[in-house]
Structures are given as C-alpha cells and as structure tokens.
Specification:
This protein is an alpha+beta fold and 159 residues long. The chain has a domain at 22-103 and 130-151: Immunoglobulin-like (Sandwich), CATH 2.60.40. 22% of the residues lie in helices and 56% in strands. It is built from 3 helices and 7 strands; from the N terminus they run αβββββααββ. The strands form 2 sheets. Strands 4-3-6-7 form a 4-stranded antiparallel beta sheet. The protein has a 3-stranded antiparallel beta sheet with strand order 1-2-5. The longest helix has 16 residues, at 6-21. The radius of gyration is 24 Å and the shape is elongated. Mean pLDDT is 83; it is low at 15-20.
Length: 159
C-alpha cells in the first residue's frame, strides 16, 4: 500500500480548505433611505431626490446594474425609476444609490382620491405630500446577481 507524501497531503488539505473556506456571495442588506426632499417645485414639475442606503457584507465588491422603482405620491403612481446603471459597490462597506425623479403635480392632484380640488387644497394647506418608493435594484457580486428591495415612505414638505 502506498502512502501519501507530505507535499501531496498538504496539497490535498489545501484544496479541502479552499473548497470549504470559499463561500457564496451574500445579498447586500437594505439599510434605508436618506435625504428625501423636493428639489424643484413648480406647477409643471416636482423633482424628488434621495439615496437608498445598502451594506455589502462581502469581502469583494461589485456593481449595481439596474433599478426598477415605483414612486407613489399621495397614493398615486407618479413616476418610475427604471434604468440600466453601473454604480460601484465597495467590499464590506456601505454604499448609496442616488435616486432622482420628476413628477407632475397635475397628475397627482387630478388622480388623488379626493379629486383634483381636494388634492390641491390638501397640498396647499399642509404643504406636504406622502411619497413612497417601492421596487428593487439588481446588484452583481462575483458574477452572482441579487435582487434587493427598496421600500420607503415619508412625508415631504413642498417649500
């Protein structure tokens, strides 16, 4: 019976260690949304912007490759942020995805459950709108794609 040489034994142990030490990439963690604000406010357009915040728990980076997010204002679908992108994702770190969209005040107020007049009166009196971001982003890490949610709701002041 043949015995393994020490170099063959070390090589086998190294291969076993490498096999078990390498794990699959983990999905990025959605941490929340920051800085939601109305940048431009006019009778024709409201520009909303903010950042979705995530954490990459992996020891290697990747990239955000696409977004598909619905923006809902006062319970009315107002915009879609659907794009192909290439945004770097650093290893074992937080990353931010800037999201900007334009919504039409006319569509929001006309489709408001209270009707156009009720929506306009409500916005004028409160100077606030309820904004929801619902959707997902696709992040690619080490050749593996992850679909990660975006869920956020906040009242935004119209100044």
């Amino acid at each position: 019976m043949k015995t393994l040489s020490s170099s063959a034994l070390l090589g086998t142990l190294f291969l076993l260690l490498l096999t078990f030490a390498c794990s699959q990439p983990q999905e990025p963690i959605y941490r929340g949304f920051e800085g939601l604000k109305a940048n431009t406010i006019s009778t024709k357009r409201i520009t909303l912007s903010g950042e979705a915040v995530y954490h990459n728990p992996n020891a290697f980076g990747g990239e955000v490759v696409s977004t598909d997010i619905q923006v809902i204002v006062n319970d009315v679908p107002a915009a879609t942020i659907q794009q192909e992108v290439s945004i770097p994702v650093p290893a074992t770190a937080e990353f931010r995805l800037p999201l900007t969209c334009n919504v039409s005040p006319k569509e929001i107020y006309e489709n408001d459950r209270n009707g156009a007049l009720g929506g306009i009166i409500n916005a004028v009196l409160t100077k606030k709108v309820d904004v929801k971001y619902q959707g997902e982003i696709v992040v690619k890490l080490a050749g593996v794609s992850f679909t990660v949610p975006v869920e956020y709701e906040e009242q935004v002041e119209l100044k």
